[in-house]
Q: What sequence folds into this?
């Protein structure tokens, strides 16, 4: 143990931990850079052999392919950028609708899963177990090819009251067609929204001052509704006319026709994700200790008040983080649209790859887009989570 | 203890709730009017679903497509002459399951254990070829043999079982692939002939086995105090977790060949395996990180006090505990990877889903989508449901979270 006596003797530099750490990092960094250089150089030389090189210039050329559904104007003479935007908007559409519907369905199933009603409980459990144990892709393909495409032909469509037409060409539903007064009506709605927000703000402010939070949501909604109704009847002509679908020859016209691809993707995503959300909701509610419920009922809360004021706010804190990851999963899973030919971001991009041969550029761009979307969703949900977090003193 | 015995009123026991059918119905189904409404709605729902399903399954559906193509579903285009190699691999796995069952689950009088024993025997009753039926019976016998060996529960058997689980998957892959390109024994079966459930299973196993070391390294990197290493790990994990698996599979199919030096090519299956491994590693890293976080700091300090180096602390003290804690989570990841491998059908591989599309293209079976997809859903369901059941058992018997 003589070494330890020599207190400030210099350790050989290759044994000094601080030096070693820096060295290890530099080494790791260099290795990684070397790997990237190796892969990049290979790619450049491989691309050169094919007679191309990385460039996004093709993006402003004409795409030359059609897209079945689009939220914005698009034709085969539009540019690749336009096609990519169409795909992105379709992904946003399906994901946001999917998130809304799967949350509703998921909460219902999750509550049924812990309900005291024997039948509801078992049905929810079977539903969850089946959906959690088969792959989403199989579900989607089944839904698309064995259900939606197997619906009857247009000329003997199943007609549900509404009228809603179920055919193998899609789902025809009644839809509002804007008339000349539509734009003015939107102004009315905007004013209603403003009034609703003002009511909410003033109510919350009053609640903060007095310590008794008034119920403001119904009043806000009522304000919006009031403005809408007044606008509808004050205007000389109703802003929307109801247009019902009808069968003309071999096709449906009128109303809104939802394609089988869209319906299959949306319903598949909603059903699949709702099973996972149901489990999240169940876990969140069960995380609330029984004492909370008993204390609430001892204080004279009704069951509904208990749910609204005691269980739900607390369960929400447990639910939000896993719910976020379910939302992110749903958004990422919407890329499986490629298997059933719904023109989402990924499907359109793979068509662009086929059309232009630009695999590297397109795949990188698609990954970046999904990454940014995921990050934005995650940031928003983190912000929300922080807002409702238990503030400990 | 006579002091405390005082003459007070006799305390009556709480009333015994007697089980009556009417009482049960009232309590569980018709408690309030809401309850009644829910019950009635549920009955209608169950009736509708069951009736529709039964009518379809026994009247509309034509199941020959499954019976005729069963071999394609299970092993794809794998040559029939070499099918014994797969059977051998499955027998090894059955023996190992029996052994592990005896070691960890204890009671065989367990519905799943009985099921594992009986199902192959029941399957053997179906009109397969004699070879397959004998093999199915053999499966039960081998499993039972493993169970009898495992019942001794000596430390040596425990150690053997752990190592066997580590070794079984490389052995299985070698058996399937073969050893000698032109040899008489174990000739190589090229991967474009692998298909069906076999390919699904192999992709899952390769994904887990190869992503394991990578995932552990990434998890350690993410917790490391060295900023560059940590940044690299975080970027890798977050990027991979932020994009859909299908983009990574596309990258592996279309971009990977570009990244390799000229002349070096990988076949499609191998490329998919690379993609799945890279994908799975990021998720595994997060799971391992969870396990690492569960190790109390005292363990590090104790190891330090005993004079262990940082490396020794990690390998001998921390990792064994962390990995043990996350075994059930790993089974969960195995299940989701098993389901996720269906995505390789999109890039043109003939896994369980891919081969289904090929079968549906046969002129005899046009329009049999519902039957085929229902059948493969059932296969996926049986495997993942049983695995999740086993993982719950494992959680109990390992006492995870109780120490």
A:
């Amino acid at each position: 143990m003589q070494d330890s006596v020599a207190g400030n003797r210099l350790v050989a530099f290759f044994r000094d931990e601080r030096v070693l750490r820096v060295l290890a990092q530099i080494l790791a960094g260099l290795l990684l850079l070397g790997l990237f250089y190796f892969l990049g150089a290979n790619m450049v030389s491989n691309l050169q052999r094919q007679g191309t090189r990385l460039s996004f210039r093709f993006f402003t050329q004409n795409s030359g392919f059609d897209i079945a559904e689009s939220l914005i104007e698009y034709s085969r003479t539009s540019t690749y950028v336009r096609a990519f935007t169409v795909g992105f908007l379709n992904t946003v559409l399906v994901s946001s609708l999917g998130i809304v519907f799967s949350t509703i369905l998921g909460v219902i199933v999750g509550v049924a899963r812990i309900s005291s009603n024997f039948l509801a409980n078992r049905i929810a459990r079977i539903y969850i177990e089946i959906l959690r144990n088969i792959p989403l892709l199989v579900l989607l393909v089944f839904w698309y090819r064995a259900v939606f495409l197997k619906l009857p032909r247009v000329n003997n469509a199943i007609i549900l009251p509404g009228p809603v037409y179920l055919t193998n060409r899609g789902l025809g539903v009644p839809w509002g067609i804007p008339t000349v007064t539509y734009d003015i009506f939107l102004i009315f709605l905007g004013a209603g929204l403003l009034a609703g927000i003002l009511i909410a703000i003033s109510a919350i402010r009053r609640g903060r001052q007095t310590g008794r939070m008034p119920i403001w949501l119904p009043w806000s909604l009522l304000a919006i509704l009031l403005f809408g109704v007044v606008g509808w009847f004050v205007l000389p002509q109703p802003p929307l006319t109801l247009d019902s679908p009808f069968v003309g020859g071999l096709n449906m016209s009128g109303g809104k026709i939802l394609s089988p691809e869209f319906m299959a993707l949306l319903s598949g995503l909603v059903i699949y994700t709702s099973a996972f959300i149901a489990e999240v909701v169940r876990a969140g509610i069960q995380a609330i200790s029984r004492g909370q419920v008993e204390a609430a009922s001892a204080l004279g809360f009704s069951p509904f008040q208990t749910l609204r004021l005691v269980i739900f706010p607390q369960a929400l804190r447990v639910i939000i983080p896993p719910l976020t990851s379910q939302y992110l999963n749903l958004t990422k899973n919407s890329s499986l649209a490629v298997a059933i030919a719904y023109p989402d971001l990924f499907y359109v991009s793979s068509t662009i790859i086929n059309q232009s041969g630009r695999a590297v550029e397109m795949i990188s761009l698609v990954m970046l887009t999904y990454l940014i979307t995921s990050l934005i969703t995650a940031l928003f949900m983190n912000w929300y989570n922080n807002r409702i977090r238990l503030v400990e003193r | 203890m006579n002091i405390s015995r005082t003459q007070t009123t006799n305390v009556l026991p709480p009333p015994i709730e007697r089980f009556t059918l009417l009482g049960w119905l009232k309590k569980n189904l018709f408690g309030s009017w809401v309850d009644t409404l829910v019950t009635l709605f549920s009955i209608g729902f169950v009736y509708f679903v069951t009736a529709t399903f039964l009518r379809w399954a026994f009247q509309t559906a034509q199941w020959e497509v499954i019976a005729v193509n069963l071999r394609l579903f299970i092993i794809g285009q794998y040559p029939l002459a070499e099918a014994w190699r797969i059977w051998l691999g499955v027998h090894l796995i059955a023996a190992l399951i029996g052994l592990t069952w005896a070691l960890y689950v204890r009671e065989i009088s367990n519905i799943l254990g009985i099921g594992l024993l009986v199902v192959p025997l029941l399957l053997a009753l179906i009109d397969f070829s004699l070879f397959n039926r004998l093999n199915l019976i053999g499966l039960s016998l081998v499993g039972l043999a493993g169970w009898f060996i495992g019942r001794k529960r000596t430390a040596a058997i425990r150690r053997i079982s752990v190592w066997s689980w580590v070794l079984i998957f490389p052995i299985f892959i070698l058996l399937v692939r073969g050893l000698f390109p032109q040899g008489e024994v174990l000739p190589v079966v090229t991967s474009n002939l692998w298909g069906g459930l076999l390919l699904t299973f192999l992709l899952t196993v390769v994904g887990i086995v190869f992503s394991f070391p990578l995932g552990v390294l990434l998890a350690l990197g993410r917790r490391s105090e060295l900023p560059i290493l940590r940044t690299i790990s975080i970027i890798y994990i977050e990027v991979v977790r932020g994009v859909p698996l299908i983009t990574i599979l596309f990258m592996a199919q279309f971009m990977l060949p570009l990244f390799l030096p000229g002349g070096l090519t990988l076949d499609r299956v191998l490329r998919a395996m690379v993609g799945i491994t890279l994908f799975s590693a990021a998720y595994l890293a997060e799971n391992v990180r969870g396990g690492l976080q569960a190790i109390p700091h005292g363990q590090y300090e104790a190891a330090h006090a005993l004079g262990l180096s940082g490396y020794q602390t990690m390998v001998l003290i921390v990792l064994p505990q962390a990995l043990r804690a996350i075994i059930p989570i790993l089974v969960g990841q195995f299940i989701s990877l098993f389901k996720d491998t269906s995505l390789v059908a999109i890039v043109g591989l003939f896994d369980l889903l891919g081969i289904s599309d090929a079968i549906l293209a046969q002129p005899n079976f046009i329009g049999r989508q519902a039957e085929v997809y229902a059948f493969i859903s059932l296969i996926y369901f049986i495997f993942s449901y049983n695995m999740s059941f086993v993982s719950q058992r494992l959680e109990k018997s390992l006492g995870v979270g109780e120490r």
